[in-house]
Amino acid sequence: MNFQLTKEQKEFRDTLRTFFQSKEIKELTNEIKNGPSDYDAREIYKLLGQERMLAPNFPEEYGGMGSSFFEAAILTEEMSYNGIPEALHVLSTLIVGNLILLSAKEEQKRKYLPSIANGDTNVCILYSEPKKGSDLSSLDSHAILEEDGTYLLYGRKVYSMKTHLTDYGLIAVRTSNKGSKYDGLTLFMVPLKNKNVTITPIPSLSDESLYEVVLDGVYVSSSDLIGDLDEGWTIINKALSVERTGLDYLVRAERWFDLVWNRELDENGISNENTLIELTRLGSKLDASKALTYKVIDEFDRLGAVDESLAAISKYYASELACDVVWKGHDLRGIGASLSEGHGYNPLYGSLEAAYRETPGLTLSAGTSEMMLETISKFRLNSSN
Ligand SMILES: Cc1cc2nc3c(=O)[nH]c(=O)nc-3n(C[C@H](O)[C@H](O)[C@H](O)COP(=O)(O)OP(=O)(O)OC[C@H]3O[C@@H](n4cnc5c(N)ncnc54)[C@H](O)[C@@H]3O)c2cc1C
């Protein structure tokens, strides 16, 4: 495959760079930087949406540019380089939006995609339950079918990210107990601004809060169902691979690497030879991670699906590498040096101290490192295959 950007992709990247450097966006970025540490960039997302640049790979009739998944990845990288918090965008547009695009029926696409693409609607993910994050087939949350064809949702979800900024949650629930535990799961878009939904923050090391969401009888209609009834397991697996391109871990690793590298620079570049060797080695690993991530993205683009084990390799590599980068930064300067940088969001890169608190979560979210290794060994190392 070819990792070079096409002429059109370079032009798109340049347009984004000009857009992010505009006075209006810079002012908004500064406001975010000085606001609460759990950053809210929805105003910037809306401005991108007005230019049809928030969901570049959505077809034009759903508010996108009709371009490829590569453009979507370029947008995420450029957000990160320009200090625009990208986490909610990755959840809402890249993961949920693309899941709807790949797996939903036409009326479901028409209902949700245009408002996700213009930034009016933001969506979080409600899969994990207490002690059931790694084994989603054993979920307890459930939907009850009413006589009028609507569903009532009950359950308790945990560790949901950016929930307080979202309008809907993409939720996995049990709709049938027939068949194996992998049968009978269904995905719904559940409105979160509802009196029967309780959202409570879960304290976390990271600046990005996690939330518990309790649903105590929330009505949804059959048009809020994504895909087919009882067929959620297949879609969840497809969606997990979209979550595991490695892209959102790679962009963190890259910006933290730049932070570490720039701290080591003196008037002669990096004159300590050992430091230069160690950081160059990490830089090569970043290149490898980028190659893996774009290989996954290329598969999505061409096939609309991706090999589960390839996505696991990319997610594992990028998330562990992001940890290595931050820990190397601490090895070189010590925690004291990082603490003295302050707590806030640096307009370009964030702080290494905040990164230090964020890294453990990277090896858990979207599937733990152990689960990634299990997937890789199951599909790649089984000698009978
Ligand atoms: C920063 C962050 C953001 C998150 N965002 C979201 C979100 O937006 N939405 C959402 O639904 N969830 C989210 N999660 C939850 C995340 O997906 C789960 O934490 C993760 O899947 C692990 O599930 P668990 O915490 O229930 O751990 P468990 O599944 O209970 O696992 C506990 C430990 O046992 C290990 N383990 C479990 N099974 C096996 C096995 N078969 N083989 C080997 N080891 C095993 C795990 O690796 C882990 O170390 C987020 C988590 C974090 C940290």
The level of helicity is: 40-55%
- CATH names the topology of the largest domain as Butyryl-CoA Dehydrogenase, subunit A, domain 3
Architecture of the largest domain in CATH?
Answer: Up-down Bundle
Number of strands: 8
State the name of the first-level CATH class of the largest domain.
Answer: Mainly Alpha
Q: What is the approximate shape?
A: globular
How many separate helices? 12
What oligomeric assembly is this protein in?
single chain
Bound molecules: flavin-adenine dinucleotide
Q: Secondary-structure element sequence?
A: HHHHHHEEEEEEEEHHHHHH
Rg result = 21 Å
Distance between the termini: 25 Å
> Regions with pLDDT < 50 over 5+ consecutive residues?
342-348
Mean pLDDT: 91
Tally of discrete structural domains: 3
- The main sheet orders its strands as 1-4-5-8
Word description of this protein:
- With 385 residues, this protein is α+β, with helices and mostly antiparallel strands.
- Helix content is 50%, strand content 14%.
- It has 3 domains: 7-121, Butyryl-Coa Dehydrogenase, subunit A, domain 1, CATH 1.10.540; 124-230, Butyryl-CoA Dehydrogenase, subunit A, domain 2 (Beta Barrel), CATH 2.40.110.10; 244-380, Butyryl-CoA Dehydrogenase, subunit A, domain 3.
- Strand 6 (197-202) and strand 7 (210-220) form a beta hairpin.
- The longest helix is centred in the last third of the chain and has 32 residues, at 308-339.
- The two termini are 25 Å apart.
- Residues 342-348 have low confidence and may be disordered.
- It binds flavin-adenine dinucleotide.
- The site of flavin-adenine dinucleotide has 21 residues, from strand 1, strand 3 and helix 12.
